[in-house]
Predict the 3D structure of the following.
Amino acid sequence: MDNRLYDVIHRRRDVRAQFTGAPVPDEALHRILSAAHAAPSVGLSQPWDFVLVRDPAVRGAFHEHVQHERAVFAATLDGDAARRFAGIKVDGVLESTLSIVVTYDPGRGGPAVLGRHAIADAGLYSVCLAIQNLWLAATAERLGVGWVSFYREPFLGELLGLPTGIRPVAWLCLGPVSHLETTPDLERHGWRRRRPLRDAVHHDRW
């Protein structure tokens, strides 16, 4: 048994505050994107694309949008939840070296996508597998990844000039980090605790 894969899986973190801004070597970026592109996909549709975002103006506009959406979410909280959320950083858009936006094209491989006829979201699941591959590969390269989800899809689609029908699934911040935390941020900040595995395993029926 090779324990290195398990080590990478358990070291992976959603990074927000530890980016150094140092460059990502081109060879490492190519390996990471190749790993993402090697993900399995329903009907071999490969419905993902990767938009590499380095332009400071684009990143600045997105960061401003994220801060607005953070404020919208914060306004729904009160008491302890509001206090906990106030101390949580939700993005590393400006501090990371670059961003990768992973998109979903539901028309890729169509009109008949083998294996998707009964589960419409199977293509979206495929994109998530590519994202996980990317994340684990970046972790193996000693780089950090942060998934930013405080955005509205129409805004991001317009910002990046995405064709009609293409969905942005993830804005991922990528870059060297000072360190990876041993405990996930949301757990460290008291937002939520990880469920024990025994609570998630069922046998034969729920």
Notes: Strands lie at 48-53, 98-104, 143-148, 167-176.
